[in-house]
Amino acid sequence: MGCESLSVALAIVLLLEPCLSLACLQCDSNFSSHFSSYAPKLSRKSWGLGVVPVAGRRLRGWAQDTLQELNLKISPDIPVEKLHTIATTVYGKLDMLFKNHTYKPGDLPKKLDSIFEEQIKMLQDAIVESRIKCENHCGLNHYEAISCQTCNATKPTCFGYNCSSSDKWKDALNELYDYVKGLNKEPEVWASALRQVPTFSHCTAESPDTLNFTSIGDTLSKNWLKMMALKDMEEDAALLKLLEPTC
Ligand SMILES: *[C@@H]1O[C@H](CO)[C@@H](O)[C@H](O)[C@H]1NC(C)=O
Ligand SMILES: *[C@@H]1O[C@H](CO)[C@@H](O)[C@H](O)[C@H]1NC(C)=O
Ligand SMILES: *[C@@H]1O[C@H](CO)[C@@H](O)[C@H](O)[C@H]1NC(C)=O
Ligand SMILES: *[C@@H]1O[C@H](CO)[C@@H](O)[C@H](O)[C@H]1NC(C)=O
Ligand SMILES: *[C@@H]1O[C@H](CO)[C@@H](O)[C@H](O)[C@H]1NC(C)=O
């Protein structure tokens, strides 16, 4: 039986049962204990016609819908503490919503939607900020994160342009080439690992042999010089957009 064919009452009881695969907010260890406490509240209070099915659907689909709504061009990796902070904020708002007896019961779905949207914005900001912070170094960098898609630990790798001298820049380029050459040689694994390096997210190369390191070095160096020249004039985020090599 698929998720959609369950009756609503049953589905609310089964809120956290096999239908859901792990996703994003659900990667937080306290997700289950909080979300399982909302279902009984939904059935106990008299909420008004049509409210319970809509609210139940929103709560039941929370984790999967979150992943879908994130809609980012980069992979949704988020440091665990940031995820936890956001999750705790969301639980706080939901706890408050179910405790508050002063709003019209019929407003529940709208209020749930607005908490949901706020959550999406917080997650997007945290994911993008972590990435930009990583790219604001010189050369290769990593950070510890958790994948919103699988809840597995990940270690996103960034290549940053914030080098203070040509020597540091040259070292950073060498480090990048060594990294790219040292990636797992399975063509598909290699290609996917390459695109995880933000600088190379647009590359379609299938193996190190098809990358022209001379041309990559040229464009990266040109971009680096351009960025050094613009550094005092532009916002970081605008600068980072300049930086993709021809590959
Ligand atoms: C989960 O919630 C409990 C009680 O609110 C809290 O003490 C604990 O730190 C939370 N778990 C994590 C991983 O923070
Ligand atoms: C309870 O709901 C009412 C009506 O929406 C709102 O004005 C009030 O701020 C809420 N109280 C809390 C503590 O969230
Ligand atoms: C670039 O590096 C310098 C020196 O390491 C540091 O002070 C500065 O904050 C960095 N810039 C950004 C945007 O992170
Ligand atoms: C995530 O971790 C699980 C268990 O540790 C593993 O079976 C699975 O292959 C991992 N998924 C990815 C995409 O790495
Ligand atoms: C690599 O790129 C350089 C500079 O763009 C170009 O001169 C050279 O012919 C390219 N090499 C190959 C094998 O395509």
UniProtKB/TrEMBL annotation:
Keywords: Signal. InterPro entries: IZUMO, Izumo_fusion. Residues 1-21 form the signal peptide. The keyword Signal applies. The keyword Signal applies. Belongs to the Izumo family. PANTHER family: IZUMO SPERM-EGG FUSION PROTEIN 4. This is Izumo sperm-egg fusion protein 4 isoform X1. The lineage of its organism: Eukaryota, Metazoa, Chordata, Craniata, Vertebrata.
